[in-house]
Amino acid sequence: MKYLLVAVVLIIAIGIWRNNRRKAAAPPPARPKPHHATEDMVTCAHCGLHLPASDALVGPDRSLHYCSTEHRHLGPR
Question: Which InterPro entries match (predicted)?
C-alpha cells in the first residue's frame, strides 16, 4: 500500500513537471508574412493618374500608358 501511494505521488509530480515544461517552451515561430514584390508605377498620358504598370493600358506606340480605354482613344494631352 505504501509503494502504491509513492507511485501515485510520483506519477502526479512527473505529470505536473511535464505540463510546466510544455508551457515554458517557446511557442513555434510565427510564419513570416509574404513579402509582396514592388511594382513599377506609370502615369496615364491623358489625365496624369499614377497606376501600377500591370493595370495600365499601353498605347499604340508602346511608349505611353493609359488608365482606361477611353483615355487611350483620346490620346495624350
Answer: PP0621-like
Residue 51's domain spans which residues? 41-74
**C-alpha dist (Å) from residue 15 to 2, 12, 23, 24, 37:** 20, 5, 13, 14, 49
pTM: 0.53
20 inside domain: no
Write out pLDDT tens, residues 16-74.
988 887 766 667 778 887 877 889 999 999 999 999 999 999 988 889 999 999 999 99
Q: Which three cell numbers stand for residue 53?
A: 504598370
Closest CA to 57 of 49, 67, 47, 45: 67
Number of domains in the chain: 1
66 within a domain of the structure (yes/no): yes
Q: Is residue 47 part of a domain?
A: yes
